[in-house]
Amino acid sequence: MTKSVIQPLESYRLAQYAVPVPCYICGSENTFDSEFCAHCLAPLALAHQANSQGAMPRMIAVIGASAVGKTVYLGVLMDMLSRLPDRMQILARGAFSITLQQTTLSALSRCRFPQKTPNDPDQWNWVHCQIRGGTKHGSFELILPDMAGEAVLQEVEHPHTYRVVREFLRKCDGVLLLVDALKIAEGGRDQEHFTMKLISYFSELEKDTKYGWEEQPVAVVFTKSDLCPECADDPNNFAQQQAAGLWQQCKQRFNRYRFFAAGVAGTCVSCEQRGEGRVNVPLRIEPHGIIEPFEWLLKNTLV
Ligand SMILES: Nc1nc2c(ncn2[C@@H]2O[C@H](COP(=O)(O)OP(=O)(O)OP(=O)(O)O)[C@@H](O)[C@H]2O)c(=O)[nH]1
Ligand SMILES: [Mg+2]
Ligand SMILES: [Zn+2]
């Protein structure tokens, strides 16, 4: 015999599903309890945070080829900003916003570089923070994701494969474009060609803001300049001499751009690790030129 039980009807719970949560990046509607947007895979925590703050966050895209140093740059940047309250105050919104600096710094403190960013957008680290001081606009909210270079390349070669990359670039207010100084100095043209492809991809995207691409600030950051002194001394001249195509393209497409040089490691050695093959090991961490491009970009965003 089946024992009868009283099952309360909690249909009111369904009412929550009737109110959609629009994704902050692509605008698609999602249910209130989804973790990632069903359309572009951006975390919905961004939408919840933005709704609770009321202010429209600015967005900065950090892009560049795979292994150019995006994760290292961003992780160190966030860590430095959180320790330099006199220069710029940064307040992370949501625990997820601290993961990038945590994983980067924990790897560097073990004399390791962080792992390559996975291609799946639902595994990327996003930073949502409040910035105070350092700009003429007082305090504002900021969103920046650490995208995987391979995913960006895939989207450039086959548009619409990574919707989040496309939507984010359409909406963003400025771009940090990272280029590997060492590869450029070694004479390979791949790095320059990839960056030029990237520039033509995003500068031809229809912008979702009132200003077109030519008015968006673009900071071109030569990474690993610790290994390339001529770039660290004069990044503008380095671009003109060693990456003339890239230099010319920036000049033709953007009204506001600047070249910077950044480096994180003091001394690096390459050694054989069991199970990992040959890896680069940072023996000392001596960040330089990390904050300047970011500061310049924030001062030049047109919000
Ligand atoms: N010497 C030196 N090497 C660096 C620096 N930054 C990054 N590297 C090297 O570049 C490698 C890649 O750095 P990542 O930050 O993981 O590169 P990424 O652009 O995030 O790459 P994806 O995640 O594949 O898109 C590291 O493993 C280091 O070997 C730097 O400032 N100096
Ligand atoms: Mg990465
Ligand atoms: Zn979305």
Q: Looking across the biggest beta sheet, what order are the strands in?
A: 4-5-6-3-7-8-9
Tell me the count of domains.
2
According to CATH, the homologous superfamily of the largest domain is P-loop containing nucleotide triphosphate hydrolases
How is the biggest beta sheet arranged? 7 strands, mixed
Bound molecules: guanosine-5'-triphosphate, magnesium ion, zinc ion
Task: Count every beta strand, where a strand is a DSSP E run of 2 or more residues.
Answer: 11
The fraction of residues in strands falls at: 15-25%
- CATH topology heading of the largest domain: Rossmann fold
Order of helices and strands: HEEHEHEHEEHHEHHEHHHEEEH
Distance between the termini: 69 Å
Mean pLDDT: 90
What is the number of helical segments per DSSP (H or I, 4+ residues)? 12
Low confidence ranges: none
Characterise this structure.
- The chain is of the alpha/beta class.
- It folds into two domains: 36 residues, no CATH class; 245 residues, 3-Layer(aba) Sandwich (Rossmann fold), CATH 3.40.50.300.
- It is built from twelve helices and eleven strands.
- The protein has a seven-stranded mixed beta sheet with strand order 4-5-6-3-7-8-9, with helices on both faces. It has a two-stranded antiparallel sheet with strand order 1-2.
- A hairpin with a 7-residue loop joins strand 5 and strand 6.
- Helix 3 packs across helix 4, helix 8 packs parallel to helix 11 and helix 10 packs across helix 11.
- It is globular and about 85 Å long.
- The site of zinc ion (ZN) has 8 residues, from loops.
